[in-house]
Amino acid sequence: MHGLVTFAAAVVFWLGPAMAQQVEVPNFWDQHQRVSRPDLSERRQIRFLTSVDFPPFNFLNDRGRLSGFHVDLARAICAELGVTDRCQIQAMPFRDLGPALKAKKGDAILAGLAVTPENRREFAFTQPFFRFPARFITLKEKPLAEPMVSSLSAKTVAVVAGSAHEAMFAAFFPGLLAKPFPTRQDALEALKAGTVDALFGDGVDLSFWLSSNDAGGCCVFSGGPYLSDRFLGEGLAIAVSPDDAELATAFDYAIGRVVAKGGFSELLLRYFPVSAF
Predict the structure, then answer these.
(1) What percent of the chain is modeled with pLDDT above 90?
(2) What is the rounded distance in angstroms from the CA atom of residue 225 to the CA atom of residue 125?
(3) Which of 45, 51, 104, 242 has a Cα-to-Cα distance from 91 of 20 to 30 A?
(4) Distance of alpha carbon 192 from alpha carbon 140, whole angstroms
């Protein structure tokens, strides 16, 4: 996930109604904030830079076309700002995104660039619009409910050794028994075999695994979701040049409008059929 880190406390976390697909729809945007509509009339174009190696956020579809959550979000932003005819979305290797932005070969990076102190010295960022939750999964016939501290008492939880989620589990659930596994696959196999009672890991990754053939319908989410700026990072934001903070503000305005109109929820449902939340 390109080294993603945490999230601004000013953003509100909310779990909305399930909608038609019975999928929980999160909203990380503070809908009480007021951002003025920006004037972009003097901009000849707005060039988004992305990559193709971060599905479902940005990837090439089976027709070789640039697709993904980020791509559709860029289009929604441009439509909201009334600049669709001036918007471009270009893909390149992830390592080239920062140098391309600095060389003025693009105006914004929408590809999961980590919001770290180091990157904040080189780029300006929008407010984060998505966070990565940690989740527990359990066997379908043995679900657990909150409070998980009580439900997991005297039980064993699989974690991937050396991962942020192992450290987060130890901090969030002191006293509970964790069993580290060398790989994600080893941990998942242990859960399916019933040798552990639950697995704690990345909710987005696990949401796709739950709907995969490998899972075979064995398991479900239990409890959560859990968010942490310390362990999981600031989530997803759009990066711009440090001298172009005005553009970041324009994107903040547009994303706020997309959220308010329900478009953001529609994108989440499109790309996350099994909600990570």
Answers:
(1) 76
(2) 25
(3) 242
(4) 10
3-state SS of 159-201 is EECCCHHHHHHHHHCCCCEEEEECCHHHHHHHHHHCCCCEEEE
Torsion over CA of 100, 104, 108 and 110, rounded to 10 degrees? -10
Residue pointed to by tokens 């945490």: 6
Q: For 208-256, how does the pLDDT look when each residue is reduced to its tens digit (9 = 90+)?
A: 999 999 999 999 999 999 999 999 988 899 999 999 999 999 999 999 9
Q: Do 47 and 101 touch, CB atoms closer than 8 A?
A: no
Query: What pTM was estimated for this model as a whole?
Result: 0.82
Residue 234 is predicted with a pLDDT of 87
Of all helices (H) and strands (E), which one includes residue 100?
helix 97-102
Mean pLDDT of 81-100: 96
